[in-house]
């Protein structure tokens, strides 16, 4: 059984044959073919991926397209709430949503380290299968490379996505406008703390799970009802603070957050205090920042709250004309402080 | 001056500041921003990449699209005739051509190892700039990650490409038909031998350069004149032998090569003899196999020969009804031998 209590299908390359990935699995010969035909096509195959070609030929599409790419190097590759597989799939889906698009097609490129357990690769492929099916997207083309032991770290995944931009939506960080409000669909910092708690030697027992989740189904309903959204962005690396700082810089506006409105789970808060981290800077993988005119906020919030992934949606801040380029926060104790962009790497290899 | 004798612009992040890539360059904060703004946007920027967003919004496109992805892990990253940068760009362009498409948009995702010399990254970015300008494609979106020293190998690059399928072309390995001939645009094995000769300790002085080259301009002219092409494939990993074996398997036809017609440079032949390799299995990065009815071969050959990258174009084999699924070769000494698919990794990390 897998973590969800379902019976997981057995790895189709048995231990007696190849317990671990070898260099030849990336050589483009018979073993690459076996890997693709036994492990990948049966789980991810579709009319496009099956074509046995160097690329996919996709049907004509009306309107603008969005394209986004991300390489995932998260460490560890399995963590509470997910693994590098669903993380990669959901991450690219959410980046397409951030462009105001309906995600459609995903490419999947694997860089495997020689010696990766075949069972681990299998778990990751099953996880990609579940995530793509949940999000309603297709993996249409792929690639597999293998590097020598010590020249990679088990598995890196690139997912690149194409989506269809929803007509009428004009999303850009530059459209952030004074009078807008900032919404988020739930608690912050869960993913980053889940990764930290899964790392060896930290001795963290926060019980926090990653929030990795595709947000396209919820946002698709929002898009159908409201075209006035100015900015969308999933606050991953750099967290809410990093993302909002980028938006302020791009638009020349200020953003004022309200600490009392920031949803932070007890486990995340506790772990952050222990580690000297601020949840505002910790990565999320199932959250969306939605910036839009205040007049439309309640309608959009009520749509988001109708979805499980948006039940905790709320307004966390406002866009201001003053303090352009800066994120500030009204603190719980009544002061106002600057939420600066971090210069460095708070948590390396978080995604 | 660079290898081409041009004055190369200086690395915009001086040694005094960051001589090497550090983890924070992948953290999504200020240093990631600096890397993108100083090194990438000034060289690769365009109306799409400049938008400062998680993805690119691309204009509507008529007709079918092709999508292809490849991660490049070539070792070494600099080699005679090219580097991992132009290799990644040209490889994805050629995969789009293999789908019968005009390459348009490329995504660029970098996985850097902590400690990579900033100057090396800069050389690679300049090389990507040259290659994308030569091919006439745009890098429209990107991503940068950094992994700890010893968890990667200097730089891995994913390029994913989108192209517009040329109307009327129906390219598939399954369309390979008895009576077709197999064309190639020049000598085989150059890339693989160039990589081997660049590897430390091999003591190979073959003087062979990689053939890394984008083939879309030449093939675009072919596409305009002739829609009857059945199969296109660039023989990279696994070489001509590996690629033709896949085509025979997919189509259930046989292919009979003529050894006397196989173009192999002296340096490649010599190195292959020394190393016990067969040039038929050695990777190419600027070659295209074109399979089409014999009646159209001379016309297509004459178009290809009008281009520098196709001056050596010729017929190297024929598609047969007999021996389905098998590649065979008439040897120079008058015998016929089977050209099997290799099972493993002849040359690891060749691309």
Give an overview in words.
The structure is a homodimer of 351-residue chains. Chain A has 351 residues and is α+β, with helices and mostly antiparallel strands. Chain A has two domains: 23-165, 60s Ribosomal Protein L30, Chain: A (2-Layer Sandwich); 173-338, PurM-like C-terminal domain (Phosphoribosyl-aminoimidazole Synthetase, Chain A, domain 2), CATH 3.90.650.10. Helix content of chain A is 28%, strand content 23%. Chain A is built from eight helices and 14 strands. A seven-stranded mixed β-sheet of chain A has the order 9-11-8-12-10-13-14. Chain A has a four-stranded mixed β-sheet with strand order 2-7-5-6, covered by helices on one side. A two-stranded antiparallel sheet of chain A has the order 3-4. In chain A, a hairpin with a 5-residue loop joins strand 13 and strand 14. In chain A, helix 2 packs parallel to helix 3. The two termini of chain A are 26 Å apart. The model of chain A has no long low-confidence stretch (mean pLDDT 93). Chains A and B meet through helix 1, strand 1, strand 2, helix 2 and strand 5 of A and helix 1, strand 1, strand 2, helix 2 and strand 5 of B. Strand 2 (65-72) of chain A pairs antiparallel with strand 1 of chain B.
């Amino acid at each position: 059984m897998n973590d969800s209590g379902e019976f997981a299908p057995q790895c189709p390359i048995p231990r007696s044959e190849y317990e671990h990935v070898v260099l030849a699995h990336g050589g483009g010969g018979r073993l690459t073919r076996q890997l693709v035909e036994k492990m990948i096509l049966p789980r991810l195959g579709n009319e496009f991926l099956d074509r046995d070609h160097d690329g996919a030929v996709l049907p004509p599409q009306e309107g603008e397209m969005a394209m986004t790419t991300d390489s995932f190097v998260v460490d560890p590759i399995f963590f509470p709430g997910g693994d590098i597989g669903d993380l990669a799939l959901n991450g690219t889906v959410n980046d397409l949503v951030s462009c105001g698009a309906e995600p459609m097609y995903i490419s999947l490129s694997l860089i495997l380290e020689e010696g990766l357990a075949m069972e681990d690769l299998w778990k990751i492929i099953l996880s990609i299968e579940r995530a793509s099916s949940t999000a309603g997207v297709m993996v249409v083309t792929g690639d597999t490379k293998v590097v020598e032991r010590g020249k990679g770290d088990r598995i890196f995944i690139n997912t690149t996505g194409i989506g269809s931009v929803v007509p009428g939506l004009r999303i850009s960080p530059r459209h952030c406008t004074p009078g807008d409000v900032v919404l988020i669909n739930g608690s912050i910092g869960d993913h980053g703390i889940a990764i930290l708690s899964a790392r060896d030697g930290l001795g963290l027992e926060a019980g926090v799970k990653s929030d990795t989740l595709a947000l396209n189904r919820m946002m698709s309903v929002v898009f159908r009802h409201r075209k006035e959204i100015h900015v969308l962005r999933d606050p991953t690396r750099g967290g809410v603070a990093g993302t909002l700082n980028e938006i302020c810089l791009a638009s020349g506006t200020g953003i004022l957050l309200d600490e009392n409105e920031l949803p932070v789970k007890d486990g995340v808060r506790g772990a952050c205090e222990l580690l000297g981290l601020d949840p505002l800077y910790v990565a999320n993988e199932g959250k969306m920042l939605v910036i839009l005119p205040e007049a439309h906020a309640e309608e959009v919030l009520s749509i988001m709250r109708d979805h499980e992934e948006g039940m905790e949606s709320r307004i966390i801040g406002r866009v201001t004309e003053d303090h352009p380029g800066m994120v500030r926060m009204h603190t719980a104790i009544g002061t106002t402080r600057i939420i600066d962009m971090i210069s460095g790497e708070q948590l390396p290899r978080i995604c």
